[in-house]
Amino acid sequence: MITLVNGVPGESISVHDRGFQYGDGLFETLSVVNGSPHLWDRHMQRLLRGAARLDIHAPSESLLRQEAEQVCRSAGHGVLKIILTRGVSGRGYAPDKQAQPTRTVSLSPWPDYPAEQHTHGVAAQFCRTMISRNQATAGIKHLNRIEQVLARAELEQDCREGLMYDEFGHAIEGTMTNLFIVSHDSLLTPDLSHSGVEGVMRGLVLERAVELSLETRVMDINKNDILQADEVFLTNSLIGLWPVRRIEAKQYALGRITQRIQEAIVDAYAAD
Q: The CATH number of 116-268 is which of 3.20.20.140, 3.20.10.10, 3.30.1360.40, 3.40.50.720?
């Protein structure tokens, strides 16, 4: 693993950093192929949008690109992670306006995602751990991930992903993915205006679906909608698209619309 901390090789930050103390920051995870991070512009747009929302002074995109190229230079296939925190400040929740943000840019090995997960699909389950509603942080990829940690700990051995709900029973997303269902030839995905992460791959799928002339809707989705769906799939920037073949006792076929979307985004992810 190769890491730069504020542009300098290292693996340590201060225990007083607000990212460590409070989860006060943001992160982006990008797939790297042949030394090049995929979907860079989209990830940067989300990072900068999140920094503006949290009022964290973000470094320039050109600086982040320079550091990303430095750690990815000798990489074939890997995972680039960029973390931006508010930086070091004194005790207490109130942000220090003079704090200098901390950034880390790191490269880690590609995870074990067998190819058959793209062709034959994965098993998933419903999680008991709920996801919070908060318009102030909805959509951005902030560092507060304890709900996802708890939900992921629930997963049974044969399940690759867990689906999370808010307090009103609305399905929001997977622990590390965005959710799509196909019902009566319409592509549906949860409304993330109150919680969840607006995934970079989710945005690309929605754009490509329009190009394919598919009827697409962002709306409230509940457990019954999922169980009655014709097709279900999951997305993120590393996996691209995983068809879902089973959610608990419900079986799903690898459907026509899922396959069309998978083909439409094959240029944008680093599947094995």
A: 3.20.10.10
